[in-house]
Design brief:
Blueprint lengths: L5 E4 L2 E4 L6 H9 L4 H7 L5 H13 L1 H25 L1 H18 L8
Antiparallel strand pairs: 1-2
């Protein structure tokens, strides 16, 4: 009996019969999470599905890694286009982030 844990849907890898992307499981695995921790993050999945997804990744690592790199490149290109298209908004957000970081690093007042 051969069970498929991963399928491709419209060019994206998904865990079979779910909407969970293989990317999510692989990135969690590569970040050092155990299968038990990953299943805690995705309660719709079973431990068997997590192990199946990891086994699929390890068996097809070169292909999946290339797919992940392409997804990262596509995201970076989209982010750049959106940033360029909405430059004033991006500048306002960047200024807000800098302000928040500066505020977070200020010493807190002490009570007397």
């Amino acid at each position: 009996m051969n069970k498929e844990y991963v399928t491709q849907v419209h060019g994206a890898y998904r865990l079979s019969d779910t909407r969970v992307s293989l990317d999510s499981v692989v990135y969690a695995f590569l970040n050092g999470l155990s299968p038990e921790s990953i299943v805690d993050s995705f309660p719709v999945l079973t431990l068997e599905q997590i192990y199946g997804a990891i086994a699929y990744y390890l068996a097809h690592q070169a292909d999946v890694d290339a797919y992940l790199r392409q997804g990262e490149a596509d995201f970076a290109a989209l982010s750049k286009r959106l940033r360029e298209h909405n430059l004033p908004l991006h500048q306002q957000l960047a200024a807000f982030r800098r302000q928040q970081q500066a505020t977070a690093h200020e010493p807190k007042p002490t009570q007397s």
